[in-house]
Amino acid sequence: MSEFVQYLVNGFAQGSIYALIALGYTMVYGILKLINFAHGEIYMIGGYCGIFLLSTLGLPFWAALMLAMPIVGIFAVLIERFAYRPLRGAPRIAPLITAIGVSIVLLELTRLVAGAQPRPFPQPFEDMSYELGNWIPALDGVIIQRNQIMVFIIAIVLMVLLNAIVMKTKIGRAMRALSMDFDASRLMGVPIDRVIAFTFFIGASLAGAGGMLVGMYYNQVEPYMGQLAGLKAFTAAVLGGIGVIPGAVIGAFILSISEALVVGYSESSYRDAIAFAILIVVLMFRPWGILGRPERVKV
Amino acid sequence: MLKVNSIGVSYGAVRALFDVSLEVKRGEIVTLLGSNGAGKTTTLRAISGLVPTNKGQIHWKDQDLAIFNGQAHRIVQSGLSHSPEGRRIFSGLSVKENLEMGAYIRSRKTTQDKLAIEEDYEKVFTLFPRLKERLPQLGGTLSGGEQQMLAIARALMQRPELLMLDEPSLGIAPLLVEAIFKALVEINKQGVTILLVEQNAAAALSIAHRAYVLETGHTTLTGSAAELANNPKIREAYLGA
User: Fold this and answer.
1) Looking at residue B70, what is its pLDDT?
2) Where does the pLDDT of residue A127 fall: very low under 50, low under 70, confident under 90, or very high at 90 and above?
3) Could you give the CA distance from residue B84 to residue B152 in angstroms, rounded to a whole number?
4) A180: distance to nearest CA of chain B, Å?
């Protein structure tokens, strides 16, 4: 029992980070039908941005987080403007290959500038952990780190904010309309380029926050961290139903909890295998994911 | 008000429009008739900036629409609304949200602006009372006729000067077609100019002031609705008489 709960705790912390990345994948896919393979690198840059703001500028954690998010967001808007927008209307394979190219460029640039070695991430909060056994005897031995709680809470707050933007604001409504029908949205007077840029901004801000949180959680960042995390988050988005915003969150938690259970009960080297096994099974039996709907061919 | 001067449109190597000219004057209902594939829908799409033209000009309120450079959202903002073929309502948005998308371009700066929007909601609910009953429902769950009402109501929320409608009777129960055409006359009386594309020529000619006939990408015939309704060629080709 205690063991199982401990794995759940670990799974929820990691899942919060996957979810923050997966949201950007799914939002961009929902509108442009583009799998933005550079998204994992955006997350990685969020981590480096965090180091710069915390160590070099010496900002407090909250200020750094609030600054890193828009910085990374603007960065993604520029990428969209110069790499993807010129290909609007081109066959879907063209922006996809471009995204892979952008991903490589960002990765190698970071490696050149910051070095290939992992960089330590300054710890904004004093290390602290809580033993659940002190309050609930049945959970004797379960430990929650303070960082895990912070990661989870920050992620949830950001997701609630995202939900408010998407469901309650004018631009959020335009984003949803755009994901359903491009031409009809244009006829409603929606400036589509601006809404797409905003979507990239929001998605990248969330990934950037994820990068900072993961730096805080694992005490380091490195140039390659976006590769695997990006693939995992993409898997989570597909699992939940790509293009469906709540699906990304559900997919992320299912994925991370499966990983944590596999690591706990079998071997940690199977951790990545389980993620991609899930991806393969989903693609075979339910390619539209948990909350998605099969794509119908429009007449 | 709207003057289309000899425009052409191609989709890749396929030419859809060769030479289309038409004019709509303020306050009119003008209908564009033609068989399938004649280019009626493409004509509307060209006017609202969804497809680029490769020849000719479109003048709208003494402005050449070319200045908008195909930015459809700016054309809408200038008072030209387009309710597209197949209704194209947002199936995953509620009826209320669909109408709010219609009001997307409306300014909300002053209380007057907000009142004007509220007023327009009331107007479309008077026109289509069914929509008011269905406000929280998802657009995709409405019947075909209700979706068409929503599509027209959504366009009216833009407070257009000219409303272009593409096949509002397509796939809709006859009773509702009648209701929709009555609503169009009412909308026109309230001061909205209408350019109507219809395959139901009899219904269209019964409410229109003037009409154009489009054949394989050319405008071939024009006249008052009464003239065309009595033209033997039109009667044979489009009215089944």
Assistant:
1) 81
2) confident
3) 9
4) 6
Residues of B with Cβ-Cβ distance to A185 under 8 angstroms: 101
Q: How confident is the model at residue B241 (pLDDT cuts 50, 70, 90)?
A: low
CB contact under 8 A, B100 and A174: no
Q: How far is B91 from chain A (nearest CA, A)?
A: 8
Q: What is the pLDDT of residues B21-39, one digit of tens each?
A: 999 999 999 999 998 889 9
Cβ-nearest to A173 among B101, B105, B158: B101
- The C-alpha atoms of residue A148 and residue A10 are separated, in whole angstroms, by 8
Chain B residues inside the 8 Å CB shell of A174? 101, 104
| Degrees to nearest 5, angle at CA A53 with A47 and A59 | 130
Supply the DSSP symbol for A294.
P
Nearest CB to A184; choose among B88, B97, B105: B88
Which of B77, B101, B163 should be substituted to probe chain A, the one whose Cβ sees the most A Cβ atoms within 10 Å?
A: B101
d(CA A257, CA B236): 70
Query: How many CA atoms within 13 Å lie on the side-chain side of A213?
Result: 30
Rounded Cα–Cα distance for residues A19 and A32 (Å):
20
What pLDDT band is residue B236 in, cutting at 50, 70 and 90? confident
Q: Which residues on chain A are in Cβ contact (under 8 Å) with B81?
A: 187
Distance from the Cα of residue A118 to its chain's centroid: 20
- What domains lie within chain B, and their CATH numbers? 2-237 (3.40.50.300)
Q: Which amino acid appears at position B127 of this protein?
A: L
Q: Measured between CB atoms, which of A183, A188, A192 is closest to B101?
A: A188
Task: Please tell me the predicted confidence (pLDDT) of residue A298.
Answer: 47
The third-level CATH classification (topology) of the domain covering A2-122+143-285 is ABC transporter involved in vitamin B12 uptake, BtuC (1.10.3470)
**For chains A and B, what is the number of CB pairs under 8 angstroms?**
63
Min CA distance, A179 vs chain B (Å)? 9
Instruction: Give, in degrees to the nearest 5, the angle at Cα A130 between A129 and A132.
Output: 150
Handedness of CA A167, A168, A172, A173 (dihedral sign): positive
Question: pLDDT (tens digit, 9 = 90+) per residue, A19-71?
Answer: 999 999 999 999 999 999 999 999 999 999 999 999 999 999 999 999 999 99
pLDDT per residue as tens digits for the range B97-138: 999 999 999 999 999 999 999 999 999 999 999 999 999 999
Contact partners, residue A235, CB within 8 Å, separation at least 6: A251, A255, A275, A276, A278, A279
The H or E element spanning position B30 is: strand B29-33
By Cβ distance, the residue of B73, B88, B97 closest to A181 is B88
Q: Is A170 on the interface with B (CB under 8 A)?
A: yes
Six token digits for residue A211: 């990068």
**Which residues are paired to B17 by β-bridges?**
B9
Domain residue spans of chain A: 2-122+143-285
Q: Report whether A134 contacts A127 (CB < 8 A).
A: no
